[in-house]
What we know:
It is built from 13 helices and no strands. The protein is mostly helical. It has a single domain (59-296), classed as MetI-like (MetI-like fold, Orthogonal Bundle). InterPro entries: ABC_transporter_permease, MetI-like, MetI-like_sf.
Amino acid sequence: MKFMNGNRKRYLTGIFFIAPISIIIFTFLLLPILQTMYYSFTDWRGVGEYSFIGLKNYINIFNDSSFKYSLLLTIYVGLSIAFLTNVIGLTFALVLDQALKTKNILRTILYLPNVIPIVVAAFVWRYILDYNNGLANKFFSTFSSESIHIPWIDSPDYVVPTIIMISTWQMIGPVMIVYLAALQGVPLDLIEAAKIDGASKVKRFLNVTLPMIAPGITVNILIGLANGIRIFDLPYALTGGGPAGASETLAIKIYRYAFQSTELSYGMAASFIMTLVALVITLLFVSLSRRYERNVM
């Protein structure tokens, strides 16, 4: 009887401790998702009455060529940012994991872009990448006999790679920190054993270091995907989604639907689609990463 009372007490204590966070998660996360799903099947404009219209919003969305472009653009940007931040972040982490006198200063410099507010950074980059008087074009002009004018943010051909470049620049710091922490957990005796066996640096990295930091790779992939798929503030502050809608990501598209066109239910349907896309891509990469971890560990 005392054993049962003890279990009941621990059970009630657990409920007491998880109840506040559970209420917060339900109120501010799960409930809005459920409401978004419900209103996406209506013609609600944010105020007033509404009627149930079924799948009409979703049908109209997938018949909208601009939405399809924004969806594909968002996936492309998200995957590109995840790939580049991981490759560059891991490279810097490997360099700074060495016994360098200036490694602490270099770590600070590389992490600094993540501290700068993205809207402030966007306005600075607009000045740097200006077509006529930007510092970037002036810098490249010094290596040429003619004045160089690259439309970094003024041309549909350049604006998306430019946004990916800036996003990667901002996210390298956190990704590098995760990799540095993962590298600290690589046993030195394994590396020494590989050296004794005659393994080259490349083979030691591929066969010893990389498998040992596999959990860090999973975390950083999620960081890159999360920031890439939901990207809004940088392209909106940098170009407003232009030129000619070339940098209009799905988040910007949803913002226009909901708050500029007052088609709130239409925007909710689009946001639910973005959530599903992000969920599918994230689960796919997590599944692949976990499978890799199981195979190498």
